[in-house]
From TrEMBL:
Signal peptide: none annotated. It catalyses: L-prolyl-[collagen] + 2-oxoglutarate + O2 = trans-4-hydroxy-L-prolyl-[collagen] + succinate + CO2. Its main location: endoplasmic reticulum. It is found in: Endoplasmic reticulum membrane. The chain crosses the membrane at residues 21-43. It comes from Cucumis melo var. makuwa. It is a single-pass type II membrane protein. Belongs to the P4HA family. InterPro entries: Oxoglu/Fe-dep_dioxygenase_dom, P4HA-like, Pro_4_hyd_alph, Pro_4_hyd_alph_FE2OG_OXY. Keywords: Dioxygenase, Endoplasmic reticulum, Glycoprotein, Iron, Membrane, Metal-binding, Oxidoreductase, Signal-anchor, Transmembrane, Transmembrane helix. It holds the Pfam family 2OG-FeII_Oxy_3. GO terms for molecular function: iron ion binding; L-ascorbic acid binding; procollagen-proline 4-dioxygenase activity. This is procollagen-proline 4-dioxygenase. The keyword DNA-binding does not apply.
Amino acid sequence: MAVSKGKYIKLQGKKWSTFQLSKMIMALVLALGFFMLIALRFFSPPETSHHRLPSVRRTAFQSDGLGKRGDQWVEFISWEPRAFVYHNFLSKEECLYLISLAKPHMEKSTVVDSKTGKSVDSRVRTSSGMFLNRGQDKIISNIEKRIADFTFIPIEHGEGLQILHYEVGQKYDAHYDYFVDEYNIKKGGQRMATLLMYLSDVEEGGETVFPAAKGNFSSVPWWNELSECGKGGLSVKPKMGDALLFWSMKPDATLDPTSLHG
């Protein structure tokens, strides 16, 4: 699971004369109005009844990295939270490589303590996992670059990749990926978005479920393939090589409670 963090850049302003400043303000107002129209067009939910999920939109992407990825396209699935599925984001060879890399180093997964910001054991998370170093090798670097290209978030703003394994019956209860403690926010900033990459297929279950999402959940193409648990909200069925991108923050940089997932 790759999680991105938000950072900010402070720009040093120039000094302007009164006349220059007036012209500059007028130009900025016009430019701001133009960009606001673009932003509203891009970020606003479509005007449909009951937030019906839109149809699939297919886009071709150039293949790179280890192995062949086949046809790739991005499928928009939700406005609240903002969520997209990138089909065939990883090749089969990349998935198997990541699994083999992680297998010898798996440990019991932990959660972040909201008071101390430390990692602690918890019954809400029973999986096993491990972390990779950023840019650990050429294959990892290629995947990280692909993530940055897809999300428009620079590699250096992201955490290292985390590989998780769930046995039958294991779980991670519904939770937020954004931080609610000051310790982690001061340490590295708030988490903006998460990219989940599925490394294997499953016979049943294993869905990523958003119980607080808003929309017509049954309109997703894979609705009839979901488990009973998966029908408890907006769900994405795991498929080897697919990637799920969802945002924990709204376009106005406030935290999005509909990003609750498990």
